[in-house]
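Final report, closing paragraph on structural work. Over the funding period we assembled a curated collection of sequence-structure pairs, and we close with a single example.
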Amino acid sequence: MGIMNLGYVILEMKEPSKWSKFAQDVLGFGEAESYGENGTKYLRMDNAPFRYMIRKGTEDRFLAGGYEISSKNDFEKQIELFKRSCIDVYLGSKAEADFRAVEAFASVKDPSGNTVEIFYGRASGKSFLPGHGISKFVTGLMGLGHMVLPAPETEKTISFYEDIMGFGVSDDLTLPAFAPEMPEQRIYFMHSDNPRHHTLGLYNFPNPTGVIHLMAEMTSMDEVGHCLDRVKAAGLHIFASLGRHANDEMVSFYFFAPGGIGFEVGYDGKQIDNWDSYEPTKSVIGDIWGHEYDFPVVG
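Its predicted structure, as stored:
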């Protein structure tokens, strides 16, 4: 496949220090050393040099996800495939690669306008232990977790990730429409070359922040429960109560992080040992239990 995992996420925040403080105080992330980009906060979850880049800007929004490619050769093959598919490719400079602690990276836009970065040659980080007594996050070869992106150009975007990026389908979830005059909801879950049930989800509606949600996985139910307490103490809005998903069996809750970024914290996500023998599912329910939704009314 070539795409190993989701290696890093880039956010833009009006106040990067505020997001960094939240990530440490609530999630248990740590602040990493700077990799040279002015005004940027780098956050750690594990022994990787960083997992989140929080850039200073004029908006609060998701900018890009960076996918790790298995080798320089596969990286170059992916760039050639983009070009043969008539997709504009931006090749990052040496300085920009240094900002990401990688040997090289490139970026493209998917058909829904999401920025996709690919990279190879991640630098080694120092040993890291999360805060709040968290033993570790479920990362390593499976990457930082997963993300769900807005994909209003759904079919074209699915084709981009399957046919050009090489992702595989895990589950195709359809849910009732918000209102009779609207289309049904659809979330297309896709895996990369690791056991995590999905590295990427595509949702068929837009989102003003540029991301539906990001996910961090812990190793025990108690760690998730303690995090839930910290989210409540911080006064952050919980928009989905504790529950277990039907497709990946994750026990989790969702809340809005600073800047309106949707965030899922979970435990016990399904892992697939052999994707060659896996039969993709088509789900019509999102949850086995829980996950009562409470979205704030705007306007």
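The chain has two domains: 3-120, 140-290. The CA atoms of residues 224 and 266 lie 6 Å apart. We thank the funder for supporting this effort.
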